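Hi support team,

I've been running sequence recovery on a batch of backbones for a student project. Most finish fine, but this one hangs at about 90% for roughly twenty minutes before it completes. I'm not sure whether the input is malformed or the queue is just slow. I've pasted the C-alpha cells below so you can try to reproduce it. Let me know if you need the job ID as well.

Thanks,
M.K.
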C-alpha cells in the first residue's frame, strides 16, 4: 500500500491529511499559527511559523498512522492564494509575509485603478484592490524602500514551504493569476504589470503546472519533518481550486460553496468571466475556470470570536445548538478586515 500526503496552509492553521492510494483518510493533524496585526490594516504572518507547523504536522501524521515514510508516494502543499514573501538573493526572508487580506495598500490600489485600471483589468481579469500582490508591492516600495531594494526573489506561501522541502524555486500558473503580475491571456508574467510594481520579472518564480512533480524532499528537510529523503513533491496550487477539485466540481455548471478563512461561491465554467465584481481563476481540470464571489472573513469570524471572548469551539458549538434557526433575525456582517466582492 502506498500513501499520499497533502498539507494545507490556511489563514490560521495548517492541516495535514494522509490518504491511502484508495482514497481513505489514514491520519490527520492540525497546527495553528498566529496572524500578526502590527498596525492598522496590516495582516502578516511569520514564515518560521509555517515551517514549524509543517514539521509538527508531518511528525504527528507519521506517529498517528505508524506508516513508514518510505511508503509515501508523493507530497503536495497548498495555501491561500497570493500571500507573498519578499526574500533576498539568497532566498532569505526580508520581513514577514504580507497576507492577502492586508489592506494597507488602499492608496496604491486606488492610484493604479485610476491610471492603469483598464489595462490591468484586461490582463489580470481583476480590478486593482488591496488583496493583490501588485498594489501590495507598491505599498512596500513606498513605505519600506530599503527592504524593497533588497528583493531578489518573491515567494508565495505554499511555494516557500515547498522550497523548504525541495530547494526548488517555482510556482504554478493558478497562483500566479492571483498576483496581478501575470497576463491571463498569454499565461506568462507580464513586463508592464511587473514594471508597475517596480520589479523585474526575473525576481518571480518559474511557472509550472499544479500537477508537475517539481523535486524531492532533501536530506535537510527529511531530518526535521520525518519524511523520507527523495520523496517526490508535487507543485500544488491554491487552496480554493484544490477544494473545488476535491469536491468533484469538474464539469461546467457545477457550483461550490466554501466557508473557510474566507468564504467563496464558485461556478465552474469553460472560460473566464472577467468582471470587476468577480474573482477569476483557472481550474486544475484543463479548459475550465471557477469564477465566483468572495468574502474575507467567513470561518475566521468564528476564530476571532473565540480569541476575543474566550471558550473553545466545542463549547461554542454546544451553545449555538440552543439558538433557534435564524437567530431571531440577528445578522452578522463579517467585515473584520475589509471586504471583497460584496
Amino acid at each position: 500500500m502506498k500513501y499520499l500526503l497533502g498539507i494545507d496552509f490556511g489563514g490560521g492553521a495548517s492541516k495535514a491529511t494522509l490518504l491511502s492510494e484508495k482514497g481513505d483518510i489514514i491520519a490527520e493533524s492540525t497546527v495553528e499559527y498566529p496572524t500578526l496585526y502590527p498596525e492598522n490594516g496590516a495582516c502578516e504572518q511569520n514564515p518560521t511559523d509555517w515551517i514549524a507547523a509543517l514539521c509538527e504536522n508531518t511528525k504527528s501524521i507519521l506517529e498517528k498512522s505508524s506508516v513508514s515514510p518510505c511508503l509515501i508516494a508523493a507530497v503536495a502543499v497548498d495555501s491561500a492564494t497570493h500571500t507573498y514573501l519578499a526574500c533576498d538573493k539568497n532566498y532569505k526572508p526580508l520581513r514577514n509575509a504580507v497576507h492577502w487580506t492586508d489592506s494597507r495598500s488602499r492608496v496604491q490600489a486606488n492610484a493604479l485603478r485610476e491610471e492603469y485600471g483598464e489595462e490591468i483589468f484586461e490582463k489580470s481579469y481583476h480590478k486593482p484592490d488591496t488583496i493583490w500582490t501588485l498594489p501590495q508591492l507598491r505599498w512596500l516600495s513606498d513605505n519600506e524602500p530599503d527592504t524593497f531594494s533588497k528583493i531578489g526573489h518573491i515567494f508565495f506561501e505554499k511555494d516557500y514551504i515547498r522550497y523548504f522541502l525541495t530547494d526548488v524555486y517555482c510556482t504554478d500558473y493558478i497562483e500566479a493569476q492571483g498576483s496581478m503580475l501575470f497576463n491571463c491571456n498569454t499565461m506568462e508574467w507580464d513586463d508592464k504589470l511587473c514594471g508597475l510594481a517596480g520589479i523585474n520579472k526575473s525576481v518571480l518564480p518559474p511557472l509550472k503546472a499544479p500537477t508537475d512533480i517539481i523535486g524531492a524532499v532533501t536530506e535537510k528537510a527529511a531530518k526535521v519533518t520525518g519524511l523520507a529523503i527523495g520523496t517526490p513533491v508535487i507543485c500544488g496550487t491554491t487552496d480554493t481550486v484544490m477544494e473545488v477539485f476535491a469536491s468533484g466540481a469538474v464539469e461546467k455548471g457545477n457550483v461550490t460553496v466554501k466557508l473557510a478563512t474566507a468564504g467563496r461561491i464558485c461556478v465552474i465554467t469553460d472560460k473566464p468571466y472577467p468582471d470587476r465584481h468577480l474573482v477569476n481563476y483557472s481550474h486544475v481540470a484543463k479548459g475550465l475556470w471557477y469564477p465566483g464571489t468572495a468574502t474575507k472573513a467567513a470561518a475566521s469570524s468564528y476564530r476571532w470570536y473565540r480569541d476575543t471572548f474566550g471558550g473553545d469551539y466545542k463549547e461554542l458549538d454546544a451553545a449555538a445548538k440552543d439558538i433557534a434557526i435564524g437567530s431571531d433575525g440577528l445578522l452578522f456582517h463579517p467585515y473584520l478586515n475589509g471586504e471583497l466582492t460584496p
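--
Follow-up from support: It reproduced on our side and the slowdown came from queue contention, not your input. The first helix runs from residue 47 to 65. No action needed from you.
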